[in-house]
Amino acid sequence: MKALMIAVTLATLSTAGAAYAAGVDEVLTSTGNAVQASHWTPETGPSLSAAQVQKQLVSAEKSGQIDHLNMTLYKGA
Fold it and tell me: Which one in 7, 15, 42, 72 has a CA-CA gap of 20 to 30 Å to 52?
């Protein structure tokens, strides 16, 4: 029984490893149809430097935007 479990485990791991290594960008749906996997890339948004992000955060904190978001989003008000 142990030998059978070891054989099944090794077969499963080798199949899963080969499938993972293939690097296919298609995902099978529950009906077996392959669809293209969408990957988020940051290229579509504005690219800001760390200093620009820090400046925006300080501005939002001074204007009260962060407090407002904390009250409405996180406290359920």
Answer: 72
